[in-house]
Amino acid sequence: MPVKYRTSRRGGPGRRETTCRRPRGFRHCGRSLLQLAAALVAAALLQGCRARTALVLIDPVLESLSRETAGAYASFSPPGCSREVLRVPAAGSDAFVREALERIRPDIVMATPLLEADLRQAAAAIGGILPASLSSSPPDDPGEMITAVFDSALAYRALGRTFGRVVGEYNKTHPDRSYCGILFAGNPNRPESWLAAFQEGFSREGPADSLALRILPAGSPPEAYERAISDLETYNLAALLVSPPGSFGRYRQRFPNVLFIEDPGDFYYPPAPEPASPAAALVLVRDPRLAVRALERALGRGERGLVPVPVSLRREKGGIRYLVEGKPVEELFREACGSPP
């Protein structure tokens, strides 16, 4: 559309002024172009800032063992990510996991223990996926993933120091020499390095010759456990640590006046029955909820690799408080965890 010009005599006699008349709608057209450009820029930014997705894969075995642990996995929600939870069938889990990753294309995937191998294989084949996991001990090959690892070696060292103080306090008030008993069943998730850390901690607070150790290899038959427990019954024990899971039901009642501590070794365990005797009963707890929250914080900071998670000591229902030097055993344990090695 041509631009029209007109002349006017404004500005005084003898003065001629030329002005330009804008085409109709020119102002509105310019505003529309600016709005369109802004919309295009916003769309480009939104495309570049696509919402990240976190996928959680849960196997049916874990749900049957511990709903609390399965619920902790399902609560995994890294900062800035939407979340999707899938229950994986027992049959054909590898194909199910591969199909889910290809369809959803998540950025981060958390899988329960039985599905970790399927996840790592599928994630490596597809690419661009960060696997996340929980573990009771550091994995042999962490690879390109992020893993929350319970610091069990630190917990055992702290427990050794706590037991050393228990034995020392007991010897002050009892004429007979007391011992600290340990029944330790090794397996890949419960390495003997934990036992070495316990012995190191115990030697700092108590006499090293007051330890009564019974170590059983992985896969030992029930008769071997029975022989070890019967042998430990011959000692004047002030405290006893047992590592095989389910010890409350099998051994707890046989040590009614002993500080009895169980380590299930895993980061979940079925609820223990109420102790039949009033003596103290405690459990080393690897709380999966703490591990999941630690993973979320680490991912929010952009971290990868191993994320340490503390192990706690919890008094079981029905157990009385066991005091040493006027403090509950749980408090001594926390203090030992926070002290220098």
Account of the 3D structure:
Helix content is 40%, strand content 23%. With 341 residues, it is of the alpha/beta class. The chain folds into two domains: 52-135, Response regulator (Rossmann fold, 3-Layer(aba) Sandwich); 152-285 and 311-338, Response regulator (Rossmann fold, 3-Layer(aba) Sandwich). The longest helix has 23 residues, at 26-48. It is elongated and about 90 Å long.
Secondary structure layout:
Blueprint: E1 4-8, E2 17-21, H1 26-48, E3 52-58, H2 60-65, H3 67-74, E4 81-87, H4 93-104, E5 108-111, H5 116-126, E6 130-135, E7 146-150, H6 152-173, E8 179-185, H7 192-205, E9 211-216, H8 222-232, E10 237-242, H9 247-251, E11 259-262, E12 281-285, H10 288-300, E13 305-309, E14 312-315, E15 323-324, E16 327-328, H11 329-338
CATH architecture name of the largest domain: 3-Layer(aba) Sandwich
Largest sheet: 6 strands, parallel
Shape: elongated
Number of domains: 2
Rg calc: 33 Å
- Count of helical segments? 11
Assembly context of the chains: single chain
Count the E strands.
Answer: 16
Spatially, the strands of the biggest sheet line up as 4-3-5-6-7-13
Task: Specify the CATH homologous superfamily of the largest domain.
Answer: Response regulator
Q: What level of helicity do the residues show?
A: 25-40%
Give the rounded overall mean pLDDT.
81
CATH T-level topology of the largest domain: Rossmann fold
Report the top-level CATH class of the largest domain.
Alpha Beta
Helix and strand sequence: EEHEHHEHEHEEHEHEHEHEEHEEEEH
Beta-strand content: 15-25%
